[in-house]
Amino acid sequence: MQRIALTGGVAEGKTTVLRMFEALGAATVSSDALAATLLTPRTELWHELIAEFGQAILNAEGQLRREQLAALAFSEPQLRRRLNRLMHPPIVRALQAHLTQLHAPCVVVEVPLLIEVALQGEFDAVVVVHATPALQRQRLLARGLPPRLVRQLLRAQLPTRCKLAFADWVVRTHRPLPQVEQQVRAIWQELNSPR
Question: CA 86, CA 155: separation in Å to the nearest integer?
């Protein structure tokens, strides 16, 4: 089974590109979706986050207020490091366990922090999704995030241009959607061509 990592920064179109691969026939996995299952109420990670950051990160139903957690994490580097220290190991374990259960010729795995947590060696190839910083800002603002949080998010992340050195392929998502689809199809054809 070929394991292809799909990475990039916030609001660069990773999920859209992942869906395009899925439509072409790839098995797909989202590490964000796996993380969401680990963060449901009463899970081990849920308890650890409350112990670390307090009840303020919960809503009335006991679910994590992800926007509150993000605001905390991106307000201060030390808080972000504490959050990452708690989150990354269980997410990586869940991802590895999930991959061992898949039996497909090719799986594309969305891993936003692939380079930051040095997971690129776990994959056969890397696709980096890349948009312009201006488009990232525009997309985040369109999602309703306050401008201050948008600035903090973009400042806190490893710039995607730094991830390009690890790319086997780059999908440029600041282009029109048909061109993005064309780029994804070309990668898929290459992945499926006889070697």
Answer: 21
Q: What is the pTM of this model?
A: 0.89
How far are the Cα atoms of 81, 87, 91, 96 from residue 34, in angstroms, in the given order?
20, 11, 7, 11
Give dist(CA 36, CA 34) in Å, integer.
Answer: 5
Supply the pLDDT for residue 147: 92
Can you give the three-state secondary structure of 2-52, one letter per residue? EEEEEEECCCCCHHHHHHHHHHHCCEEEEHHHHHHHHCCCCCHHHHHHHHH
Q: How far apart, in Å, do the first and last CA atoms of the chain sit?
A: 14
Q: Given this model, what pLDDT does residue 195 score?
A: 64
| 63-99 tens-digit pLDDT | 988 877 877 777 778 888 888 889 999 998 999 899 9
Alpha carbon distance 108, 28 (integer Å): 5
- Name 154's Cβ contacts closer than 8 Å, sequence gap at least 6: 9, 10, 133, 136, 137, 140
d(CA 166, CA 44): 33
The predicted pLDDT at position 16 comes to 96
> Which residue segments constitute the domains of the chain, with CATH numbers given?
2-191 (3.40.50.300)
SS3 at position 147: helix
Pair 137, 145: CB distance under 8 Å = no
